[in-house]
Amino acid sequence: MLITLEGIEGSGKTSQLAHIEAFVRQRGLESVVTREPGGTTVGEKIRAVLLNPDIEKMAPLTELFLYEADRIEHLEKIIRPALEAGKVVVCDRFADATVVYQGYGRGLDLEMIHSLHRLILRDLKPDLTILFDLAPEIGLERAWNQVNNGSRSGRETRFEKEKLAFHRKIRDGYLTLARLEPERFFIVDAGQNETTVRDTVIEHLEGFIGHKL
Ligand code: TMP
User: Fold this and answer.
1) N or C: which end of the chain has fewer CB within 10 A?
2) Residues near ligand 1 with C-beta < 6 Å?
3) What distances in angstroms separate CA 109 from CA 39, 100, 114, one per listed residue?
4) What's the CA-to-centroid distance between 125 and ligand 1, angstroms?
5) What is residue 213's predicted lDDT score, i.e. its pLDDT?
6) What's the burial of 3, exposed, middle or buried (CB within 10 Å: 0-12/13-18/19+)?
7) How many angstroms does the Cα of residue 59 sit away from the middle of ligand 1?
8) How far is the CA of 196 from the centre of ligand 1 (A)?
9) Which parts of the chain register pLDDT below 70?
10) pLDDT per residue over 68-113, tens digit each?
11) Which residue's C-alpha comes closest to atom 13 of ligand 1?
């Protein structure tokens, strides 16, 4: 089973990973918690380039292909082997992030991105995508506070540095995807406190995993 977490910067999805992992374990299931970009040796190097705040201008297609290269490596080394072994894979961002950031955000052709995904993912699709929805003004403020207090790396702020208008496109893009596939997406109001968000997510997972097993 593949569960993905999505949302704008500062939406708190990464803090929820640990709660989700604990819940999956409690249910007696083996889990693999991973992230994109990253998750593999090559992927972590690609991540360092993609999120480097000193690189201000990168051609949108270069950005797209770096995310897809990271994903190919990740699928081959981590995701597919874990799924084949019957594990629950919980991934902090996945292909929806490319549709939203490089498609809706950078303006690349959505059909081209979908064709790349047909090639790379084949028939793999997340079973469940949890969307941590939040106003970008709040998300960005949270993200920069985390950078300033050291809980988020200052070496990974290339997207945080984008204008508010870009982050608005990202939020709207995610909400559009969620409207297109309501059976796959679960939207949680990430403006609530961490405990309330956790309880809402776990309650949904109880139903979802219980129903699948
Ligand atoms: P994060 O690990 O803090 O979520 O940062 C990853 C950043 O990369 C985030 O700003 C979203 C961006 N991103 C894309 O633009 N496209 C993608 O395909 C993925 C996976 C992430």
Assistant:
1) C
2) 9, 35-37, 51, 67, 93, 97-98, 101-102, 159
3) 27, 11, 9
4) 18
5) 62
6) buried
7) 16
8) 25
9) 213
10) 999 999 999 999 999 999 999 999 999 999 999 999 999 999 999 9
11) 97
